[in-house]
Amino acid sequence: MRWLAALLVLALVGGCTTATPDPVVVTVLAGSELADLEPVLADLRRDTGVELKLDYRGTVRASEELAAGTGHDLAWLATNRYLRLRGADVPLSTSTMLSPLVLGVKAGRADGLRGGSWADVAARAAAGELRFAMADPRVAGSGLAALIGVATAAAGTGAALRTEDVACDKLQGFLTGRVVGADGAAEVAEEYVRRQDEVDAVVGYESTVLSLNASGRLREPLDVVYPRDGIVLSDYPLMLLEPGKRAVYDRVVDWLRTPSAQKSIMERTLRRPVDASLERVAQLRGPVGTALYFPATQDVVDSLLAAYDRAGQPATVVFVLDHSTSMEGPRIAGLREAFATLGLGGGFDRFRVGETVVLVRFAGTVLEERSVTVRGEADLAELSRALGSAGLAGHTAIFSALDHAYRLAGGGTVVLMTDGENNAGMSADDLLAAWPAPPRTYAIRFGEADPAELARVALAAGGRVVDATSGSLLEAVREIRGCR
Asked: Of 43, 369, 427, 429, which one's alpha carbon is 20 to 30 angstroms from that of 79?
């Protein structure tokens, strides 16, 4: 009877053994930064029998492919928001982990940025004091999230970006600091490591920055900076593309959201768990800060990318500044204040490294011409002081001064600021006859300046007139300077 008892025990043991799930391979269109999940995916394969074959892309580029149709079974990107913006049907999606868009700044360069805003970042970049690596926003979600953060903060509406809120000149100062680029979040991290002696910071996901610090490959650690005016948060949804793979999808999602898998993801990749009750590693115990509203339409993203394509390049702006005697008093004081603020006042609108600023002062004739190419704080200080002691003179030769400025502008922009009517030198007709295709011209009008005559010249030059008679001269200058 002993042999019968032994057989019974074996039968009972065999009945309690969980069968190994059938092995299956599924293809996944994945964000390039998810390559760091390979150890986690090995555990997934061991526990569930599912092997995920990841095909890497930048999130923005992958979203374009998904909208057009792809042969993958699943998709796993930083976000599905870009897919939504394209009007595509968003497949079944489940968030798997979290990581905000941040700046990793060398500890020795982070003073003034800890607890700072996107405006502080843009000002430092414009002054040449912050050189950073950032992924291409046309390809990578991290790069586009940075543009959304900067543009939303610059708009100052407290709401989701609209197309009319996107201005190239608001992004220009920030993008002046982008000196290292790459297609994706993972690739830009590698570029940062390779060129870390040349740059001060990297713009990327929190997980990227923390992983760089933990890698032992940095000569100087990075402080994580969460801009106080908001960040874009990625939730890494796993998306079901092939309905016939639903059972496998459920098996993978269920495993990824178990406490043990969430803990493994957190410890190995330094992304935040979706389970808020899970105890976090030390680096992730702080808050992520304020989340920004995401744009509601693809038109906004298209506007951001168009602004990105125009921004970041050296530019010339010629300011044609009325110094006739009618400017005496509050008007010349306002002009000096505007230039002092653009020189050293900070924010999104200051003069930036690489920009050439030409000042043409005029009254009845051109009084002075001064050109400054910004290379650092000394040049910004010079521009800030440039009009401090400039004298005034009689008469107002607006169109002769513009003729002089056009000879200096090259491919740049001309900004005229005047409070009077033309009473000397060339007429508007003379100017337009001499310059049938003038450089782009904007006119800021205040005082008694003739709006119709200024508009005729500005419109012929592809610009417009801004009326500052009842508003801030500084705001008028901010409205029209930059890349157009």
From this structure: 43
